[in-house]
Amino acid sequence: MKLLYKTTLVLFALSTSFLSAQEKLNLEIESAVSISDKTIPPLWMHSNEWGKYLNKAGTYGLLYLGGDYQLMKKKNFSLKLGAGGVLNTNIKTSFLHEAYLKGHFWFVDYSIGKEADSWVAYDESLSTGNFIISSNVRPIPKMTLGIKDYLPLGFTKNWLEIKGGMSQGVLNDERGERSNSANNVLLHEKWAYARLGNSKLQPYGGIVHSALFGGTRPDGTKIPIDFFATFFATGSTKLGGGEETNAAGAHMGIWDFGLYYKHEKFDAQFYLQKPFADASGLKLWRGENKDYTIGFLIYPKEISCLKGISLEFIKTDVQSDYGIPDPLYPVDYNGHKQGSIIWKRDIENDYDNFMFEVFGETSTGWSWPEVNRYMEVAMNEGYKFGGRDDYMNNGTYYSGWSYHGESMGIPLYHTYEATRQFDDGPLNHHLKFINNRVNAFHLGMEGDISKQVSYRLKTTYSVNKGSYAEEFTRRYSWDRVANFYYKKEKQQVYSLFQAIWKIKTVPGLELNGTLAYDFGDLYHSFGGRLGIVYRPHLN
Predict the structure, then answer these.
(1) Local structure of residue 216 (DSSP, 8 states)
(2) What are the helix (H) ranges across 18-149?
């Protein structure tokens, strides 16, 4: 409540102190009432809304106050202040939503604080959202610096355009009391893109990287920080253990390719995104990354009833396949304990002795490919090592890529808390996201019904397969859970329809109504919301 009180004071100051320069001030006031079934609310009623609406069943009311003020705007420098707060009928769930400073210096953009803005997402009001940096959670406090929109490079005669950036933030939510939990985890994000300019057809390519590092364990232990090892996703002797041989911190990201097309009757975008959680997914040229999001965004210019459409095909069920991540010593060998990871460098040039002492093989002349394939058959049911990526989850950081209990990226994944609302059976609960192997088809549409009334439609069909952490008793085990909830895949549909009515007699005032219905093998849920939004015209 203290934060909300401070937000209200900021908004009051904005609306009074700058009254003489009202053209620089933007305000938004929203009041809404949400109603849904008592089990779990429909997905699209709260997802991809910057955490403004609670993921909470039942009935509750909301009052939102927000605004921004342009402190300075010059050709080569600008500075804007913004703030916003959410007041819920249950006062304890009220929170500061935004508080930031942003602007640009020459061609560089910057943002400091909690801002509801993603530099890498594609129209999340219509699509399912960016896989790893999306609008599905409350704004995270961070500092961001970079080039937000594509910048033409003059020395290429504008044939090459680039954009990119980096942010440093902190996940300051309550992240649990488990031994592998950590609070105040640091968040590192960066991205880089290049695009062809000077053309109606503009292909592009880029990469987005997100990492978790640092933080404090429930017992007060500080997790060591090695920023540059985390930045480059390399091993760290400072951290030691598995992070000395693998990569410091926890890592996720996407490859992002596509093209823009501009036509006199429509604008369009195609994109292909490939998620990765380790080196096997990062190295696309190996052909081991079989997951993807394929999307189309089309914006007709001459059809009032259809101003935007989103089509997406999502596949995230492979995750480098079923194989365990690494081979483990089945016995003690040459100073290595049973159950520790077998590294090639530790047995190099001694393959024959290794095969005899560990597996009892008396033949000689072994090479590394032969040793590796032998272990795949003997220990990994014939699969390659490096599997079970478990997107959005991490063994070192229990809460993974979540913030205030919600996915920081794709909203189709279910956390333990969400799963408990429709599955009361036994769960391993090793990791946060219980259902992260999902295939889906998504459709989003928006347009005008009349001059005053517009609409938005979102519907998603998904096939849910749970997670490797729930299917197997342990990450390095082939013992399957007997009563695995997703042993038979679960089909589910999420849907939403929203109508917005602009009040002609009061500029800036609009009414909106939302109906949502989810149904399928997971659960059935119906919900709705009525709201009033006022954005006064102060010019």
Answers:
(1) B
(2) none
Give 263's strand partners: none
pLDDT tens figures, 369-427:
999 999 999 999 999 999 999 999 999 999 999 999 999 999 999 999 999 999 888 88
SS3 content of the chain, % helix, strand, coil (to 5): 15, 40, 45
Are 537 and 516 spatial neighbours (Cβ–Cβ below 8 Å)?
A: no
pLDDT value of position 23: 57
If pLDDT is split at 50, 70 and 90, which confidence band does 281 have? confident
CB atoms inside a 10 Å sphere around CB 304 = 12
From CA 349, how far away is CA 493, in angstroms rounded?
55
DSSP string of 502-531?
A: E-TTSTTEEEEEEEEEEEESS--EEEEEEE
| pLDDT score recorded for residue 37 | 87
Q: Is 72 helix (H, G, I), strand (E, B) or coil?
A: strand
DSSP H or E segment with residue 9: helix 2-17
Helix, strand or coil, per DSSP, at residue 463: strand
User: Which residues share a beta bridge with 440?
Assistant: 314, 462
Instruction: Provide the residue count of the chain.
Output: 539
210, 187 Cβ separation under 8 angstroms: yes
Which backbone phi and psi does 280 adopt, to 5 degrees? Answer: -65, -35
User: For 394, phi and psi rounded to 5 degrees?
Assistant: -160, 135
Q: Which two tokens stand for residue 483?
A: 């009563």
Own/partner contacts of 352-360, CB < 8 Å, gap of 24 or more, are 357/331, 357/333, 358/329, 358/330, 358/331, 358/333, 359/330
DSSP string, 222-238: BPP--HHHHHHT---TT
What is the pLDDT, as a whole number, of residue 246?
A: 73
Separation CA 535–CA 13 (nearest Å): 17
- Tokens, residue 461: 């069909």
Spatial contact of 156 and 473, defined as CB atoms under 8 Å apart: no
Residues near 462 by Cβ (< 8 Å), separated by ≥ 6?
Answer: 314, 412, 438, 439, 440, 491, 492, 493, 494
Quote the CA–CA distance of 370 and 363 in Å, as a whole number.
12
pLDDT at site 17: 44
Res. 459: pLDDT tops 50:
yes
Q: Is the pLDDT of residue 353 over 80?
A: yes
